[in-house]
């Protein structure tokens, strides 16, 4: 970690403070903080996980099955539910920040952008969350951030695992907004009250696209699966599904039932 003038960077202290508060099987565990001879030499000792999902997706010979995807996403949801109940927004959920042990346990990692929040929610910078996973309200400049930005990112993760490739791989913020509109249709005040008043809304010339194309992207997905994706991809962050809502989704209770994603074990079993 880099030193900032008189001591440890505030961002590093914030991450350490958050991690010390967290204890959940689906959240990476901070074992200890080791300080070297100088303050710029600070090391976080974390619980060991053999791989991250991004590397697995890139290198595994066969993609995760839908049953394995359900198991992975359920574990991510349990971790998010714990974070959100403790008033913490991760703000950078993506496949490379999801770690997996050889036993198939999935843990959310990298809390460098995470923030504790209160009620009312204070303004925060919109320049968070990796572009492909960034919620539309952030792209349009909203400084009001809630747990709903994590849920949009979770929708992107779920879609990526199901499709075996990123859902919205934008190359710029303008391109990212256009990809979202192509997929979900053009937002309006009717479906997203306050949309036109967002700081950057007037700077985008949105294409006229009246249709939601999720069903065309995932023609094989069940009605329950499509319903879950649609709830995660609601334009209005107030209407977006919560982690608690998703944990109760019938998608996870219908066939194919969840199976262990353990890449090192050919024997599959149901996990928790």
UniProtKB/TrEMBL annotation:
The keyword Transferase applies. One of its GO terms (cellular component) is nucleus. The keyword Kinase applies. PROSITE patterns: PROTEIN_KINASE_DOM (PS50011), PROTEIN_KINASE_ST (PS00108). This is Cyclin dependent kinase 10. Signal peptide: none annotated. It comes from the Eukaryota. Keywords: ATP-binding, Kinase, Nucleotide-binding, Serine/threonine-protein kinase, Transferase. GO terms for biological process: regulation of mitotic cell cycle.
